[in-house]
Automatic annotation (TrEMBL):
Pfam family, one: BBE
Family as reported in the entry's similarity comment: Belongs to the oxygen-dependent FAD-linked oxidoreductase family.
Gene3D superfamilies: 3.30.465.10, 3.40.462.20
PANTHER family: BINDING OXIDOREDUCTASE, PUTATIVE (AFU_ORTHOLOGUE AFUA_1G17690)-RELATED, OXIDASE, PUTATIVE (AFU_ORTHOLOGUE AFUA_6G14340)-RELATED
Classification via InterPro entries: BBE, FAD-bd_PCMH, FAD-bd_PCMH-like_sf, FAD-bd_PCMH_sub2, FAD-linked_Oxidoreductase, Oxid_FAD_bind_N, Oxy_OxRdtase_FAD_BS
Protein name: FAD binding domain-containing protein
Organism classification: Eukaryota, Fungi, Dikarya, Ascomycota, Pezizomycotina
Stretches assigned to the FAD-binding PCMH-type domain: 43-216
GO molecular function: FAD binding; oxidoreductase activity
Naturally occurring in which organism (per UniProt): Sodiomyces alkalinus (strain CBS 110278 / VKM F-3762 / F11)
Amino acid sequence: MGQNPSSLATCLNAVCSGRSGCVAYPNTPLYQVAWVDRFNLDIPVEPIAVTRPQTTEEVAAFVRCAVENNVHVQAKSGGHSYGNYGVGGEDGSLVIDLRNFQHFHMNRDNWQATIGAGHKLHDVTKKCHENGGRAISHGTCPSVGLGGHATIGGLGPSSRMWGSSLDHVLEVEVVTADGEIVRASETQNPDLFFALRGAGASFGIITEFVMRTNPEPGNVVEYTYTMTFGRHRNLGPVFEAWQDLVVDPNLDRRFGSEFVLHELGAAITGTFYGTKEEFEATGIPDRIPGGKKSIVIDDWLGSVAQKAQESALWLSDISTPFKAKSVAFTRDTLLNSQGINELMNYIDRANKGTLIWYLIFDVTGGAISDVPLNATAYRHRDTIMFGQGYGVGIPKLSQRTRDFFEGIASTIQSNVNGTLGTYAGYVDPLLENAQESYWGSNLPRLEQIKRAWDPNNVFSNPQSVRPAEEST
């Protein structure tokens, strides 16, 4: 293990007490590859150190080391931040990697699961299934970490039916900026609990979640419609018909869908949690725009595996240099026919700089919208559709690809009434007024909570919540 003679290193080494695999520094062999492991290779980041604690007490001790040495701290669970915020987002942060927090327990009296924050989504699915056939709503990428996912939102195909991942969180164990270990829930430290559910990286390091679970659906219908067109402008009517379907206020909550634009055309994918007969009875199949159709009848685990395959197709789990851009649509800020046509025409004429690009529209709402806007830090309760652009550069990202996605966002924004927000789970390092875009009307309250719990901004990345200024 490489050694650093600094005061911080002395403190971190003392916490590790000689245990191998506990801490690494920039002069540690393979530091960037084996320890930092950036998800977005287009954004260089060098943490001052990366730690891998085994207990919550060690997490607290590492935080105290950082505070004593005036160093920012960020937690890493899966490390899938588009801006590499799990490793600080900028040079010089202390990273606390939670991979060792793998404990799991299912209380069969109330079906609440206690889950260590180092779990990947694939393992959450597997362990919930093995412990009573239970399930939690979450995203489709199997290697995303629960620690970040359930503290920023956590959206997936079942979210319209069950709510987001953070809506399943009932209680947490969290290390705060003073290096203390506390519990937070609706009754214990409720202000901190509010902030951790939607802006967690700014307020502490959660080491354990207590989450409600749901019975697994017995049947799941998976479908895919693929369309190949010479020009994307020909897809305008297809997208408009799909948008009309997914924004229907009476849309069955068991139904989730995506519209994916790519270099060769488009795909409409989706999931219905029920039988094929129930799916057909909703009338939804008759409203889905036509194309080459593939339907699979599956169970819960099969559906999760199918979605993981689709996620690997659209958004690779492999570290690459990439550009991402996202917007959030409410019922009042949807694209009309003219806006859709302008978007498709822009895509046709733009120099994309890569053949590996996707523009993915996801339906949301449903059970997510049942929760009041001010109940958690997550602000997108009135969002009914997200648009996410993603372009990969091989071997590196070009400026043309960056400009292409900025152009998509500006084309969309110029064709809607009002300002579009952005989901903090699709972090955009170049976003102006990022905190307002991520947290909207909840931001002032978050800034006050930050001042109360982390006035010195210990838990910080380039776009995290800042403490409110003291009133004079």
